[in-house]
Amino acid sequence: MSINQKIVYSMFFRTFVPSLVSTAGLALGGIADAVVIGNRMGVVGLAAIAFTWPIYMIFNIISVGIGVGSSIYYARYLSEGKVKKALSLFNGGMIFCIVSGILIALLGIRFMPQILVLIGAGAASPEVSGLTGEYLYILFLATPVFFIRMLFYYLVRADDSQLLATIGMIIGNVVDILLSCLFVFVFDMGVKGVAYATVMGTGLVTLIYLTKMFRKTSILHFTRQKPNIRSVWAAYKAGFASSSQYLFQFIAITVINQLLIRTGGQTDVAIYNVITNVSYVVMAVADAATATIYPVISTFYGERNNRAVTDTFKLACRTTILLGIPLSIAVFSFADDIAMFFGLRSHLGEMPIRIFIFSILFAYGNLIMSSFYQATENAHKGAMITLLRSFIFSIMFAFLCTLVPGSTFWWSFLALEAMTLICWCGYGAVRHDMYCLSIHNEDERMELIITDKDVGLNMELMKVNEFCERHGADTKQTYYVTLVMEEICSAIILNAFQEGKDKYIAVVLYVREEGEKRDFVFSVRDNCANYNPFAVESRQLRDLDDDEAVGNIGILIVKKKAKDFFYRRYQGFNTLVITV
User: Fold this and answer.
1) What is the CATH number of the domain that holds 456?
2) Considering all CA atoms of the chain, what is the largest pairwise distance in Å, rounded to the nearest integer?
3) Is 437 within a domain?
4) What is the 3-state secondary structure (H, E, C) of 171-210?
5) Same domain, 382 and 465
6) What is the DSSP string of 422-483?
7) Is the pTM of this model over 0.90?
8) What is the DSSP letter of 501?
9) Same domain, 362 and 471
10) Taking a C-beta distance cutoff of 8 angstroms, is the pair 549, 540 a contact?
11) How far, in Å, CA of 273 to CA of 41, rounded?
12) In a designed cystine with 288, which of 20, 278, 420, 515 is the match (CB 3.0 to 4.6 A)?
């Protein structure tokens, strides 16, 4: 395995494993309402919960959009050393969540009767309609908390705190489940109980994430940086390629609920609720992969590291399939037991669940491809995939399948996912481009690997010099670029390389043109112990021995001559970004 592949594998799995735990916990927390209510209230309770899903989709349109988009831009800004811009984005995202959350809450409470009619609950029995209204009233009151929780979740992960993000999600979901059981089975609070439990669990997660902002070592924290509205809007547009699926799902679920309540009654709506919850479990692997793709590929893409971008994408596909297939087989095998676990009668949901499982592999491909585009500044392509699978084909096949007598509606899941993937692969085949993606020009960048402290550096310096000359750098700029390379790598070798350890430095050097300015940007990553070359100050040299003092003089020159420099410990690596 090459060093570049080692870096990809390390960064991918350091993010994927806690992400998988988070998505699995989120899935279990999501199905808690249905399981508790289904066992307590049967089909009536399941139908009431099913009618609330369109409102959750509205929440996700906003919260996931700003969360995903902010994490993509936040990771990209940090990979380019733009800390102030990243924190300005965070401040803007907070204002966005608070204002939009209050607005949605006011509108939801004011127009509750109309909303119940819109989502299909108005056509159900008075009991189901009343239960749905009780749940939604509590949900709307807590709207800002849901929005802030999602923003915190994505940014905490992008700030190299995947463990905190995972722990917070697990604790919140466990509390949600325990409170749901307490409120429903002990205090007999019905749907109000699960609504209160969901809100309290969400609030607890938000408070846990809030502790991140007060850590001294955290880059992500509250500052007085002026919110950048343009950055917030750009972030939301990037995240909308992901959250747009919820807009389409809002329309699709609303239409499907209306169709099912008229063709199959409350029973089919209840089954649809169960399948939706099952999908959260089997799709947790793909959700973890996409949650990994956003920060990792965004980081590599910001560094112009084309090989790492495509290697990460392929690794995400392999990992998802390897874990997802056994999980899908298990759900298929125990479909009837799963349906009964949600409170349905024996054999009532067995066939629909098994039909749904046939669509999973296609869904994995669609979801991963969409997230790949979002992380590489091709959000419009990700949005197109989302439009096809979550809206156009979803509604089209739902209508077509309900026209055929019998239980044919459930085949619409397979049809929409397969058709989306077929259409997109066909588009790629016509363009002769598997990724349908134009990534950075290879001629504008170079990769260097230093693995030995005794040999190799001089040869790499010659390559850097040739690269600068080829891209029109004058003698002065070429000298400083070469100086930066030599001093940074020498400092790492001298202070961080350890005897008998497999240590290396991976350098990406690329050209960045802004108007008439041409900058050369270093992205340096090493797997040594924590070491920040820029931490040295001139006043500290007197405390060092002669050899160390001489070795650090070059770093002071680099700090003075570089336009920008930035260090952070990220994903187990020392990461430097230097602009000359």
Assistant:
1) 3.30.565.10
2) 87
3) no
4) HHHHHHHHHHHHHHHHCCCHHHHHHHHHHHHHHHHHHHHH
5) no
6) HHHHHHHHHHT-TT------GGGEEEEEE--SSSSHHHHHHHHHHHHHHTT--HHHHHHHHH
7) no
8) S
9) no
10) no
11) 14
12) 20
